[in-house]
Amino acid sequence: SNGSYPPTTTPSFYVIIEPQPPIMSKDAKPKEAAASNAKLALLVVGWYAGNTLYNVYNKKATNMIHAHWFVATAQLVVGMIWSIVMWATGLRKMPNLTAGDIAACIPIGLFASLAHSGSVLASAVGAVSFAQIVKACEPVFAAVVGLLIPPADVKPILAYAMLIPIVGGVGLACIKEGKGVDINVQAFLFASMANAAAALKGKLGSSVTKSLKSDSAKNMDAANVYAVMNIISIACSIPFVVVQELPTLGKEWNHAVEVHGLNGLLTNIIVSGFMFYIYNEFAFAFTSHVGAVT
Is the dihedral of CA 37, 43, 49, 51 positive or negative? Predict the structure, then answer.
């Protein structure tokens, strides 16, 4: 006996009859673990496929209209509409949050909006490839933020050593034959802003999201955490549109419609927004299973 079964009040002689596992034939389905691995693989494929399509349509949209803060915000609105449809149709449970819960999510939404807008602006003013190269430095920003903001998140030495090839790779990618170092400074700064904001979002938001997910009454699974964060990001992005682009937004919109047509402009904004939302849902679902480091 292991001391917990059987109870101490029963006789010391007893027989335990354990149910035998079912005998599986050769044609039986794969084990649950294999199905889980297949699910993770599909999430990764969806994540990267969506990201690729997002980059293509985002570049098309930002080439059409010179109002990039507006494009970034409009993309978030597309995601919000998708979330509302999912909740309204009952395909996904609606979050059950208090005012305090929403207030706790505001910093996450703010940094998420800056991370998204920084990426859009970097790709708009420079090549998509260069923006993605600089974005590859995000683990470096995450490591620095983890050390500077309490509680300090100290990683093993080997983890920090792995950052060296990342920085080296980004440096090599900035060197062009016959030209030396060739950096689009504006794109570099916007991409770095996105990296810093993403690192801060991860650092400041991890405890909040864990708390919300742990309470089943709040209906805050990975998909709903991202949906709520996305809606807050819209509210945080609108002031940047007002300050940076509102005076010329009407003129830029009319010019884009005249040159490229309304259908083309709307298609690229809507598709890029939908792809952005979907690939982030896949990413959130994947990291909820395996962790952000993986």
Answer: negative
pLDDT at 57: 97
Instruction: Please tell me the distance from the alpha carbon of residue 47 to that of residue 50, in angstroms, as a whole number.
Output: 5
pTM: 0.80
> Residue 264's Cα: distance from chain center in Å?
27
* DSSP class of 217: G
- Quote the strand ranges of the chain, DSSP E: 175-176, 180-181
Instruction: Report the distance separating Cα 25 and Cα 16, nearest Å.
Output: 27
pLDDT tens, residue by residue, 2-24: 444 444 444 444 444 445 554 54
291: left (phi over 0), alpha (psi -120 to 50) or beta: left
What is the Cα–Cα distance from 182 to 174, expressed in whole angstroms?
6
The whole-number pLDDT of residue 181 equals 64
Please give the structure tokens belonging to residue 93.
Answer: 């449970």
